[in-house]
Every structure is written in C-alpha cells, then in structure tokens.
C-alpha cells in the first residue's frame, strides 16, 4: 500500500510557487531542493546563495513574486486534492515513481487521478498515429489486451487513434492502463475521449505534470512523451509517419535504456514509414504481442498457447537503437541485361484504366476504401469496420475492384491496389 506524504498549507504553497515559477527548469529546481531540502527553505535563501547552486537565472525565477492568479490557483489545487481519487505527488513524496526520479528533469509535481500503484508496476507503452488506420487500431487494442493479461500496465497518451485503442484494449482485459496527458488533470483532450478518460480514472490512472487549467498546447506533448518513456520498460510503436510524436517517444525511450519495438506494415502506406525507419535503425521488429512479452521476460498471459519456435530466428544481444540516418552507400553500377517480360499479373495491372482519385468515388466506396487501409482484409472484417449491409458491401467491393482500387486475393481476402 503506497503512502503519500501529507503537506501542510505552507509547504503546498511553496511547492506550487516553485513549480509555477517562470524560467525555473526542473533540473535547476531539483538542484536547489537537493541543496536546501524543503521548498520553503529554498524560498528563504538569499539570491546569491541560490545563484551559487543553480545559476542566476534559476535564482531570479525562484525568488520572483508569484503572479496575481497564484491565490486562486492554490485554492483550486486544494479543492482538486480534496476530491476522491485525486493525489498530488511532489519530488519529496515516497510515492513518487522511482523511474521518473532517474530522469535528469523529473516533473516537480505530478497530478494523479486514480490508482497510484500503477505508476510503480511493470509497464509497456503502446503509441502510434493519431490518424490510425483501422488495422493499426485493431493491432494496438490486441497488443494492449495481451500485455494487460500478462499483468503489464499499458501506458499511452490518450490521443486519438492508436493511443485510444491501446487504452480501450487494456480496459477490455480489465488490466491497468495509465494515460499521461498534455493538459491539466482537470481537463480532457481530445474532448471525444471524455468517457474514456473517466474510465481510465476509475480503473487505471490519469497523470499530468501541468498545473490545473492548462489547455492543450503543441509544445506540451513532446514534453509529455518523456514521462511516457520514463514510466515503462519498453515502447511499442504500432504505426507512425516519418515525422511523428511517437518517434520522439521511441527516441527518448532508447536514450533511457528502454526496449523499442515497432510493427512493420505495407511499403505503400505512409503511416508505416516511421516504424520501418525505427526497424532500420535497430528497433525490434515484432509481429505479435508475445514477442514483446518474451523480450521483456514477462511470461505469457494465462491460458495462452506458447509462441511458435521457428528455429530460424536468434534474438541475440539487445540492440541499441542509434536513431540516426545510416550512411548512404555508393551507388552500384549493374551490368546491362535484357529486361525479362513482366509476370502476367503485372501485365494485367498495366492494362487497367487510370485509377480515379478517391475523391471521385461515392461516399460508400470512399468509406470502404478507408476501412480497408493498406493491409489485407476479409469481407467479415470489412463488415465489422463499416457496418455495411452485405449486399451493399459486396457491390462496393466489386465497384472498387473494377475501378482498380483494390485486388481480390485467394481465400476471400482483399487488398488495396498499389497505385490507390
């Protein structure tokens, strides 16, 4: 049972004042607290003494008078702490997560709604694109369910797309999930996840380092990602474009010595290029959640069949992801050869009429093409994703196939055409 540190009114006010001090970076604040102990002691020091420890800028910031809204903020914080399930953790609190203390710049205050114990449990982050394809959302939920069934806490950022699917997957398994958010703990962003945030607060934990009332700002989310990376043993990137916040989380996790995993996808899908880049740079390619469990020595979920042993794959020593673009090799000049004729399937594709852009399709066809994504799917899968009547679905599939937007594969599978 975690025990939190009681805070007297003066100490709480001192913590809040230092946490809100403009220009006082977490690393500098930590140095001041290490030198003088309690935050009240820091505020009682003369400028020269503080400057000798953390520099003149930090000393100016720490001793600056709080703004006129400080008293209302303190009052709101006291009211928030009084609500059931809400906890404020300071750097000096014994319940403050040890993994965050290992960071060079741990948040001075953590606002937590829900189960504090999950911040100390074994955890894996599942992150990815906000504009996730249907297949990526399904993969995120599947990975999260399996990880949660193995008693691992699933950590993500409450964003649309992969994050939301990961949280829901863990909740479906009645497992623990932690949402690290980029707003104040009294706000929910995006608003569409209000119900999900309520579920997480009841059965998991919402965590924020931002003062109450802080709205969503783009600069907050990369900073939030460092907390996600610090709380976990590994990060699973399900889907990501080449410029993605998920790649920031992966890079930070790698710098902290965490495992980085990435799911591969179609070479034609823009949202898989970030994952493929991570794999090229040394991240572990995973196709099943059991591979993540194996890498982390987390065991199998109850009742699960053991992962198949192929005999072809030797995991070998852990690879550190450099997250650098590999050097280009000199282009090789190949000997001139007579080109062989393309296979029959390629000749057939070459005879197709030009593919019309998706905007020229009807609403049902565009919806079905979006549901198909860039991974093969059966009629049953597409029916679940679109809720289309069977006759409408079959007719729309035929329309898309004739227009060159998808190909029918053996076994009742459909896949988006390479040019679509």
Automatic annotation (TrEMBL):
Membrane spanning residue stretches: none
Q: Offer one example of a GO biological process linked to this entry.
A: DNA-mediated transformation
Please list the residue ranges annotated as the DprA winged helix domain. 353-412
Renumbered residue ranges of the record's region Disordered: 301-359
Q: Which residues form the Smf/DprA SLOG domain?
A: 88-296
Read off the InterPro entries from this record: DprA, DprA_WH, DrpA_SLOG, WH-like_DNA-bd_sf
Domain of life of the source? Bacteria
Ranges of Low complexity compositional bias? 333-359
PANTHER family in UniProt: PROTEIN SMF
What NCBIfam families does the annotation carry? dprA
Q: To which protein family does this belong?
A: Belongs to the DprA/Smf family.
Question: Could you identify this protein by its name?
Answer: DNA processing protein
Organism whose genome encodes this protein: Paraburkholderia lycopersici
């Amino acid at each position: 049972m975690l025990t939190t540190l009681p805070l007297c009114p003066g100490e709480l006010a001192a913590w809040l004042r230092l946490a809100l001090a403009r220009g006082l970076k977490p690393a500098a604040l930590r140095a001041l607290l290490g030198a003088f102990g309690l935050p009240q002691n820091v505020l009682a020091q003369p400028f020269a003494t503080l400057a000798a420890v953390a520099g003149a800028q930090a000393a100016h910031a720490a001793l600056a008078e709080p703004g006129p809204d400080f008293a209302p903020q303190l009052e709101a914080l006291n009211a928030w702490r009084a609500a059931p399930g809400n906890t404020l953790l300071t750097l000096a609190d014994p319940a403050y997560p040890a993994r965050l203390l290992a960071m060079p710049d741990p948040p001075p205050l953590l606002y937590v709604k829900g189960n504090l114990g999950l911040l100390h449990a074994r955890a894996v982050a599942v992150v990815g694109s906000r504009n996730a394809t249907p297949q990526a959302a399904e993969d995120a939920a599947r990975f999260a369910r399996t990880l949660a069934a193995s008693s691992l806490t699933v950590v993500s950022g409450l964003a649309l797309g992969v994050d939301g699917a990961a949280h829901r997957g863990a909740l479906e398994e009645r497992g623990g999930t932690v949402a690290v958010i980029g707003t104040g703990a009294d706000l929910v962003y995006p608003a569409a996840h209000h119900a999900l945030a309520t579920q997480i607060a009841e059965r998991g934990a919402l965590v924020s380092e931002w003062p109450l009332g802080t709205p969503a700002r783009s600069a907050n989310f990369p900073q939030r990602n460092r907390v996600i990376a610090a709380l976990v043993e590994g990060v699973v990137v399900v889907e990501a474009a080449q410029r993605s916040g998920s790649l920031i989380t992966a890079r930070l996790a790698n710098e902290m010595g965490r495992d980085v995993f990435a799911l591969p996808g179609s070479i034609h899908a823009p949202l898989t290029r970030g994952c493929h880049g991570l794999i090229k740079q040394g991240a572990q390619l995973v196709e099943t959640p059991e591979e993540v469990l194996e890498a982390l020595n987390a065991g199998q979920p109850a009742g699960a069949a053991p992962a198949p042993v192929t005999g072809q794959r030797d995991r070998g020593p852990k690879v550190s992801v450099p997250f650098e673009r590999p050097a280009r090799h000199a282009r090789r000049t190949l000997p001139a050869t007579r080109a062989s004729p393309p296979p029959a399937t390629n000749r057939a594709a070459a005879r197709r009429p030009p593919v019309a852009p998706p905007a020229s399709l009807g609403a049902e066809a565009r919806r079905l093409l979006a549901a198909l994504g860039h991974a093969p799917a059966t009629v049953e899968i597409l029916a679940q994703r679109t809720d289309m009547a069977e006759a409408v679905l079959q007719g729309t599939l035929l329309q898309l196939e004739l227009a060159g937007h998808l190909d029918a594969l053996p076994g009742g599978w459909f896949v988006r055409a390479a040019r679509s």
